[in-house]
Amino acid sequence: SSAGSGAAAPGKRSNPEPFMILVICPNLGIDRILEVPHFRTAVVQRSTGVIRQPGGKGSNAARVLAHLKSPVALTGFVGREDSAAVAGPLQDIGVETRLVEAFDGTSRNCTIIVDPSSAAHPTVINEESVPIEADAEERLMNVVGRQLPVCTAVLVTGSLAVGLKPSFYAR
C-alpha cells in the first residue's frame, strides 16, 4: 500500500493544486475588431463599435481558458512599446503573463471587420510581425523552462514570428 508513503496512486497527481496550462504563442499582437454593418469594399464606411484586445491564437486560447476558470500562463513575443497593452487585459481576467519583449516598437496589429448583418466570416487583415532579436528565442525558451515544472499541459499555437526557424515548434 502507498498509504503514508507520500506517493501518488497511479494516474493521480500528488500535488492537490489545480493544474496550469502553459500557452506558448510566438506571434502575439493586438486585435482591433471593428463592427461595420453592411460592410463593402472600396467605399467609405463607419464602424459602429470597436474592441481593442490582446490578439494572436495564444491570447485567444488563454482568454478562453481563463473564462473557464482554468489556471493558465501565456508567453510569447511582444514589442517593447505595447507589452503592457497585451499583458494588462489578460492579467485582469486571471491569465499569468510571461511575455518576452523581443523587438523595439509595437506588436503586430490585426484588424478584424465584423458585419453583424451578414453570416459571412469576418474580414481579417494580419500585419506581419517585426523580426525578433537574435537572442529572443533563447529568452523565450528560458521562460518556458521555468514554467514547465508547474504546468501539466502545454499548448503551442500561432504563426511563427519573423526570425524563427520552422523547426521552432519541435523544440
Please tell me the overall pLDDT: 90
Morphology: globular
Relative strand content: 25-35%
What is the number of beta strands? 9
Helix proportion of residues, in percent? 10-25%
Structural class: alpha/beta
Quaternary organisation: single chain
Q: Helices and strands, in N-to-C order? A: EEEHEHEEEEHE
- Enumerate how many helices there are, as a single number: 3
The stretches of 5 or more residues where confidence is low (pLDDT under 50) are 1-16
Sheet with the most strands, sense and barrel status: 5 strands, parallel
Computed Rg? 19 Å
Span between termini: 39 Å
What can you tell me about this protein's structure?
The chain has about 170 residues and is α/β, with parallel strands linked by helices. The chain contains three helices and nine strands, in the order E-E-E-H-E-H-E-E-E-E-H-E. The protein has helices at about 55-65, 85-90, 135-145; strands at about 20-25, 30-35, 50-55, 70-80, 95, 100-105, 110-115, 125, 155. The strands form two sheets. Strands 1, 4, 5, 6 and 9 form a five-stranded parallel beta sheet that branches. The protein has a four-stranded mixed beta sheet with strand order 3-2-7-8. Mean pLDDT is about 90; it is low at about 1-15.
Quick summary:
This protein has 171 residues and is of the alpha/beta class. The chain has helices spanning 57-67, 83-92, 136-147; strands spanning 21-25, 29-35, 49-55, 72-79, 96-97, 100-103, 108-114, 123-126, 153-156.
